[in-house]
């Protein structure tokens, strides 16, 4: 009898059979307990889409784990720098202001890392500057953008010599407010020829800067 | 066996996401599903990858708040991912749309996102079932086909189809529970 419970839980027995099964359930605590077990799973089964099930599940690009690890690596080093800065500040207090300036300068990197790149012919009213840095895990990018329409989303990418692009992240533009960001890409800097910004779904570069002029 | 052990380790020591090896195991176990959720929600591969990236970043930052006594890694990552997807949908909704750039089937409010989440999870569980079990559940319940027709197509008695539905549901429940489902959806 219990093999009918699956059909019953799914509401797939005809009226006659359902009545018979309910009569059985009245006198059978085991089957009742079993039905209670099956009911939640029967109710979520209907949420599945049989057509989606046939498609292979979409998979992220194989480069994604590298990008994530690189981003975390960057975040870690930023935290380390922050910690060094705190320690350095303590040292300054202890040693006195005269020598302190010297200590700070040696412990905390004073200039932003990487080399500047120049964006060619940005649209009127748009200002952008960026630095790129070759790292063990790929390329680090720090990007400042002003003047793109407030609230719009943009993708940042590196382009390879063959014209293919590797996603570097995305940002929401702030209109006249300067948006500054650090991005990490799992692509060695020597393999990239161009840094660019475009709107999602449109390959046209809104901003682009050659990396090896 | 080794995989199983490293998974177990990842489950226990996710608080230690600082370890790249742990992170990689967690990624291998869950990134596919997180990506599928983001992709189905947003309809764009690039944005879906950004969501996965942001999910792992937030997980890494909040790793000390993860309590293995209270939830599985999967449930925890899903909760983060859901928030990132919602943030991403809002960010997009707040800017002007071009009519033809909107991907189909984009759930906007949060309730459909929950449904999508459950649906994708059930689909993933169905993929892990045996062919025998999956076929009857899909044809009879999802495609709404008469048992007799399915039985004829498979060349087995109706009674066998029904008992496969029963064992299929039981198997599905086990797989869903293994995936961290508690039957509260």
Brief descriptors of the model:
heterodimer, A: 213 residues, alpha+beta, Arc Repressor Mutant, subunit A, Immunoglobulin-like, 3 domains, four-stranded antiparallel sheet, B: 185 residues, mainly alpha, Rna Polymerase Sigma Factor, Chain: A, 2 domains, 8 helices, disordered N terminus
Description:
Chain A is of the alpha+beta class and 213 residues long. Chain A has 3 domains: 2-52, Arc Repressor Mutant, subunit A (Orthogonal Bundle), CATH 1.10.10; 64-107; 115-210, Immunoglobulin-like (Sandwich). Chain A is built from 6 helices and 8 strands; from the N terminus they run H-H-H-H-H-H-E-E-E-E-E-E-E-E. Chain A has helices at residues 5-9, 15-26, 29-45, 50-54, 64-95, 97-107, and strands at 115-117, 127-135, 138-146, 153-159, 165-172, 179-185, 194-198, 205-210. In chain A, the strands form 2 sheets. Chain A has a 4-stranded antiparallel sheet. Chain A has a 4-stranded antiparallel sheet with strand order 5-4-7-8, with no helix packed on it. In chain A, helix 5 (64-95) packs antiparallel against helix 6 (97-107). With 185 residues, chain B is mainly α. Chain B is built from 8 helices and no strands. Chain B folds into 2 domains: 2-107, Rna Polymerase Sigma Factor, Chain: A, CATH 1.10.1740.10; 129-185, Winged helix-like DNA-binding domain superfamily/Winged helix DNA-binding domain (Arc Repressor Mutant, subunit A). In chain B, 71% of the residues lie in helices and 0% in strands. In chain B, helix 2 (20-42) packs across helix 3, helix 2 crosses helix 4 and helix 3 packs across helix 4. The relative contact order of chain B is 0.09. The chains are: A alpha+beta (213), B mainly alpha (185). Chains A and B meet through helix 1, helix 3, helix 4, helix 5 and strand 5 of A and helix 2, helix 3, helix 5, helix 6 and helix 8 of B.
